[in-house]
Amino acid sequence: MQFNAWHQKFSSSPGAAEDSDEEIRNLQAQIQEKRRQKLSGAAATSSMTTTPILATPEANSWFCGSPPKPESTTDCSANESPPSSYYNSESDLVSETEDFDQESEDLEDTPTEFSISTKNRKTSFDLTSAEKVAINLLKNFNEQRLPKASELEWLVTEEEAPQKLLPLPTSIAVGPEDGCAVSAAKLLPQSQLRGTSDWAPPRPQLILTLLTPTKRSAMMKTQDWRCAGCGMKVSEHLSRHFRFCNYLGRYFCTTCHSNQTAIIPARVIQKWDFKPYPVSNFSLELIESMKCDPLFNVSALNCGLYKKCRNLQQTRIYRLQLYYALPYINTCSRANNEKKLMYNRPQHWASDPHAYSLEDLISAKNGSFVGEVKKITKLCINHIAKCQVCAGQGFICEICSEGEPIFPFQLDSTALCATCSACYHVGCFCPLRCPRCIRRETRHFAEEAP
Question: What does R_g of the chain's alpha carbons equal in angstroms?
């Protein structure tokens, strides 16, 4: 703003340019005199250390256009001199003058008005000015070169994860004690995300590991004496009123834990324990929401349950038969009743014989699940045995080539090849000498031969 005001005044008054030229010549003469005195080793006079170089009313008039304000930090007043504490010795002032002389030589090719303004600003010798700091920073950074993006080593390359496709976070963290922040955050278009760096509310998760007993004081200390649900912080003597959640393994306040009970999935899978235990309100809703989801693969999690529970073992056999019989039912145009019956049942009953939901395990414990699966399986097998369309899709044992068509759901008398899924009699089949696999390998080698 001062430069614009000076530029307008300077352009309107032609006589100011002549005054400024005379001031510049005086300035250059004084600088050269300073340089000669330094080279000769002579001491500077006391008048040069106390009197500013451009402390003339004319310089102040063309530079600012108006008397400078006291709070200005970048321009010195015409009637004031810089404090003597800025320079510890005479050599500091001479070196500062030489720096300015070098900068004035670099700006010889710039327009006259800009050079005049720059030179007069440097005459103030204010080491704390913003201009001086900026010039020093530019000198340091001009000598260095920032590396290119291609030269940097990234953990994930641009080809693997394009940065433009990554979503930016649009949520803000809200702590349990930030009531004012929540009301203020409602005015923002961002979504709120509960949790801070030292506390976070429980998240929906499937826990299949048994919880080890822990003392209340030790667990509450790890929770920073906060409720695991709402984050309310209490003193140590009030933590005895908190209640333990047997699903999440954390302590909750009486508001977040109403002493309601639920069956713990981890205890069912590990110990076949269907006893209800106290859980928090959040855990109760979570267990109820996933009660019908086939989340538990008994064969992978704990195959010993088949030996422990007889009903579960029978359920596994009937579901395996249903799994092998379902492709015949789906491709048969005459199995409309069987298709309607299967449509009203969960799909995982036939699609994955080892997948169970919590409700399936509870029904298997009671014995009702076995009867329902057995009824559907027998109905499908009877249809395949009587239907000519389904019978035409059966297998003929390629080893003995005798008997009627056989089917994979005949678990006691047939065996399947793990590679090609061909069906054979149990007494005829050898896993290492499957006729279909040998035929495929021979055909493959013949095609590769030149």
Answer: 44
How far are the Cα atoms of 298, 312, 376, 404, 450 from residue 370, in angstroms, in the given order? 16, 8, 10, 30, 57
Largest CA distance in the chain: 127
| Alpha helices (runs of H) in 332-407, residue ranges in sequence order | 336-343, 348-351, 358-366, 368-386, 388-391
Residue 71: count other Cβ atoms within 10 Å of its Cβ. 5
Q: Distance between CA atoms of 48 and 90, rounded to whole angstroms?
A: 10
Long-range pairs for 304-309: beta carbons < 8 A, 24 or more residues apart: 305/269, 305/272, 308/272, 309/272, 309/364, 309/365
Alpha-carbon gap, residue 185 to 178, rounded angstroms: 10
Task: Supply 238's token pair.
Answer: 């009030």
Cα distances (angstroms) measured from residue 110 to each of 76, 113, 116, 289, 440: 23, 9, 10, 76, 85
Average pLDDT of the chain is 74
Q: Which amino acid belongs to residue 370?
A: V
How far is 292 from 275, CA to CA, in rounded Å? 18
Dump pLDDT digits (tens) for 385-442.
Answer: 888 888 888 888 888 877 788 898 988 888 888 888 888 888 888 877 788 888 888 8
Strands 355-356 and 276-279: unpaired
- The 10 Å Cβ neighbour count of residue 104 is 17
Give pLDDT tens digits for 181-234: 444 444 445 555 566 666 788 889 999 988 887 888 899 998 888 898 888 888
For residue 239, what are the contacts with CB-CB under 8 A and spacing of at least 6?
A: 216, 217, 220, 225, 251
Q: Which residue carries 């500091």 as its tokens?
A: 92
Output the CA torsion sign for 99, 105, 106, 108: positive
pTM for the whole structure: 0.55
Q: Which residues make Cβ contacts (< 8 Å) with residue 303, sequence separation at least 6? A: none
